[in-house]
């Protein structure tokens, strides 16, 4: 699949925006860079592409401008050999349509994508800074395991190892051998606990009856004790109530005696008790206030009558304000007028000095000396121009002299510059071409690299040959030696294993047979020692008897008869013995047969063992024939096979190292030959130029000599060109300076004419010859207008101040005349101040009298208020004193206190009667009083003490009986007469189900992790060759040659990825630096993409600013790899770094750059 065009019609910040990736150029990399500043929409573009392929989700972050119902993305996609115009809308169904708005089956896109989903596409075919860092972490977590890394790089799933570890941890949490803290162990303990609980409560019927009878007996005893205790407590409580009420009766009798003397008092209203204190306070307060008011009114009246106001002074109130204004002006004039007169005199002096400086002393009208502003401006302008014109003349003459001197010096140096000979252009070109070829950076660097590689490979070959010790010889002999292939080794290993197994089995069987036969012979010997006659001995005795009988028949004498008798007796005894021990005899026969059979079996096993050992030795000799003579391989076939495999591996490594060395040697020889041709060409060119050369000169000195020759030639040519250019330039400069001098002289003449003309209209035209004098006059005239204006202003101010003083004196005389007085010869300001003070005193006196009159009226009003309040007070007082028949409030207070005490006694007597009634539990107080009168208090108290001791005994007895009843009840409840056993059984079955579920979960996790690990191993074996080669080349390119590639090393049942550094060292993947791990993961991802594209149609690969932390050299190499990757499928790189665009252009000129925003 390829993205031809992406239309961001209405999506996020984009409206009707389109990115055209163009058609694919055959044989060219399909690499595109989308550049934009931050927030330009690069991430939005990638999300839009994913939404186009897989649909816009139910909720989207890109509806902040365009609502859901208007969101639209379009594209032209190339797949299956055709172009497809597709549009994606925000809908629940039918969101994929064509350019005509007709629905399109989602299966078309799904088939083109190979059935992968959104998340799989994002992880497998995109890469950003975050996923790059996760990939680096995956390298650490996987410990460099090759299978995990290859799968992670191809699928983009960086957390596979973490998932496997989590699954293993989950399985270990369920069950672990000899662990007591796992879930299964806890459930087993819970199961055992339930078993114990069931055993504790599951009781037989007989035991249950005993427990029930015990409970019934203890319950009856407890009930009887409780009833007796309750009866005693009731009796004791009744006595306590009687004893409690007896003191109350005494108090009631005392209060009744006190109440007898107070019963005849009147009962005043309840509010009089709070009213009396207030009336007492009001009486005292009102009397004091009335006395104070009378005294204050009298004093104010006398004070007002004694006040006098100056009404004559108040009659001039309207004129006082005008007088105040005049007085302020008079005072200001009196203070300021002397200063102003002095300042006026100073201005007159300054004017005289200015006129003197202008040589116009005593001029009658200085105003006429002033010049119009245009004239002054014209004169100043000409003065400023004069200095510039003089400077231009001096500069033109100075520059003209400098130019002429320089031109003369260059003409003097011409002969020296033109001397000497240089290289002709053709010769110089041939030398430059030959030198460039000889000093070609790539050729020289390749030679250095190949020489370094040659030495390194030579050392490597020596090391590999040293590992072949004790073998020694020529490498050609080593290559010519016969070697077994892998199939032959496997066959020998199988044969050796089979033979070892056969030998072991025969030895085991021989050992067992020998032991069995030894045991059988021991049993036979035991039977013989016990006197048991075996079949052979019996047959011998029977033969001896028969022989004796034949001998006796032949002779019939006593000797033969005795012999026959003895033989017959022995035979009979043996027969009797055999009959008596028939069972032992049968066993003896079996043992004899077993011994015979065992002996045959031992012989056969010895034959088979010898046969197997012979085959084993033959195989060991056959294997040993492939080993070098000096090699120690052992005598066993497997030992020799292991030695042979080690030898073959070392031999193969040595031969491979020899081939690598030869290959590099050929390359080195070719490079040296090419450098020799370039050297010969350079020497020929230098000889043609007439340079002396040493035939044995090193290449470095030869190139430096050629470079010096070229530099000298270029230097002489550049010097001649520079001299010619300088002469031409200075000739033009001299002509220009002469023209500038003439223009400066003409400008000076024009200035003099304008100067004479502008001064002709001034009063100092006779000073035209001196520009400095004219400048001094203008500077002095600049101060004349200010002096004239200041003198005029001061004169006007002095005149105005004198007028104000005269006017104020007239107004003051008029006002004093109205008051029948005058100024006289005194000070005017003093008279005015006295008049103003008299007026102010009159105002204060009038205001003071008005204030005192207001105060008097207020006091009189307050007096009337107090009189009214006093009348009300006297009426309330008369009401209280009349009620009690007295005339003072103190006596009323005494009566009220007595009434209050009577009321308190009445309330307390009622409370006591109620307490007695309630305490004795009777209906009326009279019943209680009668009851109390009939009892003996001492007897009741004695009975109460006796009952208290009895209650303590009964309480302890009831507590013990209750404890016995409770224990009996607990034992009976523990029997489980209800469904307790059934509940325990239900819990047990639930635990069994949980154990079953956990066991299934454990088996699932274990088999799953084992299957995943096996799948990783299979994936590693399938992809390690091609993908490792691609990743190795990419890693070497990205690291700039710091690492020459990748390799693997076995580690138990897996392989570990290592990086091979430039100096031949190696480093584990999980111990590399963080940046190098990022670069390794990037190399693996790029190789994984190419691996994917090799077996199925490629899809666009998107990288989002993954080179932010890369320097420029690393970025160049990454873009070079992306360019190679873009020949397999479309690659789109998103960035906001402009310099990366320039780097990409320099590395992949065919890259297409698309700019956002």
Automatic annotation (TrEMBL):
<dbReference type="InterPro" id="IPR038734">
    <property type="entry name" value="YhaN_AAA"/>
</dbReference>
<protein>
    <submittedName>
        <fullName>Uncharacterized protein YhaN</fullName>
    </submittedName>
</protein>
<dbReference type="InterPro" id="IPR027417">
    <property type="entry name" value="P-loop_NTPase"/>
</dbReference>
<feature type="domain" description="YhaN AAA">
    <location>
        <begin position="1"/>
        <end position="201"/>
    </location>
</feature>
<feature type="coiled-coil region">
    <location>
        <begin position="379"/>
        <end position="413"/>
    </location>
</feature>
<feature type="coiled-coil region">
    <location>
        <begin position="895"/>
        <end position="922"/>
    </location>
</feature>
<dbReference type="Pfam" id="PF13514">
    <property type="entry name" value="AAA_27"/>
</dbReference>
<keyword id="KW-0175">Coiled coil</keyword>
């Amino acid at each position: 699949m390829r993205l031809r065009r992406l239309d961001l019609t209405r999506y996020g910040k984009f409206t009707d925006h389109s990115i055209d990736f163009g058609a694919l150029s055959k044989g060219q990399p399909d690499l595109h860079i989308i550049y934009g500043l931050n927030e330009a929409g690069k991430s939005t573009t990638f999300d839009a592409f994913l939404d186009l392929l897989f649909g816009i989700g139910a909720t989207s972050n890109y509806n902040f401008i365009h609502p859901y119902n208007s969101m639209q993305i379009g594209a032209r996609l190339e797949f299956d050999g055709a172009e497809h115009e597709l549009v994606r809308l925000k809908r629940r169904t039918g969101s994929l349509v064509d350019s005509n708005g007709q629905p399109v089956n989602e299966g078309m896109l799904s088939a083109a994508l190979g059935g992968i989903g959104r998340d799989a596409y994002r992880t497998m075919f995109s890469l950003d800074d975050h996923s790059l860092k996760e990939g680096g972490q995956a390298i650490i977590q996987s410990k460099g395991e090759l299978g995990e890394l290859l799968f992670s790089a191809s699928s983009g799933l960086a957390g596979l190892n973490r998932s496997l570890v989590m699954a293993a941890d989950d399985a270990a949490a369920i069950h672990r051998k000899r662990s007591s803290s796992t879930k299964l162990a806890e459930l087993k303990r819970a199961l055992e606990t339930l078993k114990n609980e069931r055993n504790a409560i599951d009781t037989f019927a007989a035991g249950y009856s005993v427990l029930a009878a015990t409970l019934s007996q203890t319950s009856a005893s407890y009930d009887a004790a409780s009833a007796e205790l309750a009866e005693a407590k009731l009796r004791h409580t009744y006595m306590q109530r009687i004893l409690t009420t007896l003191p109350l009766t005494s108090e009631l009798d005392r209060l009744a005696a006190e109440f007898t003397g107070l019963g005849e008092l009147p009962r005043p209203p309840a509010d009089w008790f709070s009213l009396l204190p207030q009336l007492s306070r009001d009486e005292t307060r009102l009397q004091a206030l009335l006395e104070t008011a009378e005294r204050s009114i009298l004093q104010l009246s006398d004070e007002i009558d004694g006040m006098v106001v100056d009404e004559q002074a108040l009659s001039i109130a309207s004129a006082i304000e005008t007088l105040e204004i005049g007085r302020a002006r008079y005072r200001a004039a009196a203070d300021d007028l002397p200063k102003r007169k002095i300042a006026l005199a100073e201005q007159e002096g300054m004017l005289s000095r200015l006129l003197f400086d202008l040589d116009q002393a005593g001029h009658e009208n200085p105003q006429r000396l002033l010049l119009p502003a245009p004239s002054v401006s014209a004169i100043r302008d000409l003065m400023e121009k004069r200095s510039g014109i003089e400077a231009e003349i001096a500069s033109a003459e100075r520059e003209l002299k400098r130019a002429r001197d320089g031109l003369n010096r260059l003409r003097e140096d011409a002969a020296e510059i033109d001397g000497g000979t240089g290289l002709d252009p053709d010769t110089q070109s041939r030398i430059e071409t030959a030198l460039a070829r000889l000093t070609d950076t790539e050729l020289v660097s390749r030679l250095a690299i190949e020489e370094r590689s040659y030495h390194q490979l030579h050392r490597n070959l020596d090391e590999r040959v040293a590992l072949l010790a004790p073998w020694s010889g020529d490498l050609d002999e080593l290559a010519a030696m016969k070697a077994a292939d892998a199939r032959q080794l496997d066959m020998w290993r199988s044969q050796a294993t089979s033979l070892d197994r056969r030998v072991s089995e025969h030895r085991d069987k021989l050992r067992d047979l020998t032991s069995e036969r030894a045991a059988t012979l021991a049993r036979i010997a035991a039977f013989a020692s016990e006197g048991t006659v075996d079949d052979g001995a019996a047959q011998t005795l029977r033969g001896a008897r028969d022989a004796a009988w034949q001998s006796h028949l032949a002779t019939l004498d006593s000797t033969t008869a005795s012999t026959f008798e003895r033989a017959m007796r022995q035979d009979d005894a043996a027969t009797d013995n055999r009959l008596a021990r028939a069972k032992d005899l049968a066993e003896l026969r079996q043992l004899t047969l077993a011994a015979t059979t065992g002996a045959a079996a031992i012989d056969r096993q010895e034959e088979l063992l010898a046969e197997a050992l012979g085959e084993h030795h033959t195989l060991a000799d056959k294997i040993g024939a492939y080993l070098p003579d000096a090699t120690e391989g052992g005598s066993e076939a497997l030992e020799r096979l292991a030695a042979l495999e080690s030898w073959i591996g070392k031999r193969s490594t040595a031969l491979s190292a020899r081939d690598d060395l030869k290959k590099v040697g050929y390359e080195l020889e070719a490079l040296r030959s090419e450098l020799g041709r370039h050297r010969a060409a350079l020497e020929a060119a230098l000889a043609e130029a007439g340079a002396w050369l040493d035939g044995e000169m090193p290449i470095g000195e030869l190139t430096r000599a050629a470079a010096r020759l070229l530099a000298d030639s270029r230097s002489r040519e550049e010097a001649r060109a520079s001299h010619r250019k300088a002469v031409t330039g200075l000739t033009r400069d001299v002509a220009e300076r002469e023209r500038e001098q003439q223009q400066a002289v003409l400008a000076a003449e024009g200035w003099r004419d304008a100067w004479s003309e502008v001064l002709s209209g001034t009063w100092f035209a006779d000073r035209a010859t001196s520009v400095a004098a004219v400048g001094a006059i203008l500077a002095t005239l600049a101060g004349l207008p200010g002096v004239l204006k200041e003198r005029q202003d001061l004169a006007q101010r002095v005149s105005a101040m004198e007028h104000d003083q005269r006017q104020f004196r007239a107004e003051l005389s008029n006002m004093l005349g109205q008051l029948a007085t005058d100024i006289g010869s005194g000070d005017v300001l003093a008279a005015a101040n006295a008049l103003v003070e008299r007026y102010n005193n009159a105002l204060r006196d009038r205001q003071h009298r008005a204030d005192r009159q207001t105060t008097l009226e207020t006091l009189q009003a307050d007096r009337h208020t107090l009189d009214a309040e006093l009348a009300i007070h006297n009426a309330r007082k008369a009401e209280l004193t009349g009620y009690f028949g007295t005339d003072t409030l103190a006596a009323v207070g005494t009566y009220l206190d007595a009434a209050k005490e009577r009321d308190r006694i009445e309330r307390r007597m009622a409370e006591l009667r109620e307490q007695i009634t309630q305490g004795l539990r009777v209906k009326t107080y009279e019943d209680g009083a009668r009851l109390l009168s009939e009892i003996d208090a001492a007897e009741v108290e004695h009975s109460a003490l006796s009952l208290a001791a009895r209650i303590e005994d009964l309480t302890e007895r009831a507590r013990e009986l209750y404890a016995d009843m409770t224990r009996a009840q607990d034992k009976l409840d523990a029997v489980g007469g209800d469904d307790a056993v059934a509940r325990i059984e239900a819990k047990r079955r639930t635990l069994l189900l949980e154990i079953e579920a956990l066991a299934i979960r454990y088996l699932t996790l274990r088999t799953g992790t084992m299957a995943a690990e096996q799948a990783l191993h299979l994936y590693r074996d399938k992809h390690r060759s091609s993908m490792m080669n691609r990743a190795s080349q990419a890693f070497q390119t990205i690291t700039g040659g710091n690492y020459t590639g990748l390799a693997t090393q076995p580690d138990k049942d897996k392989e570990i990825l290592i990086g091979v550094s430039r100096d031949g060292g190696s480093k584990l993947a999980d111990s590399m630096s963080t940046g190098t791990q990022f670069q390794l993961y990037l190399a693996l991802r790029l190789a994984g993409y190419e691996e994917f594209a090799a077996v199925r149609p490629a899809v666009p690969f998107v990288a989002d600013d993954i080179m932010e932390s890369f320097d420029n050299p690393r970025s160049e190499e990454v873009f070079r790899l992306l360019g190679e990757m873009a020949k397999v499928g479309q690659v789109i790189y998103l960035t906001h770094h402009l310099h990366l665009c320039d780097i990409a252009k320099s590395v992949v000129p065919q890259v297409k750059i698309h700019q956002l925003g």
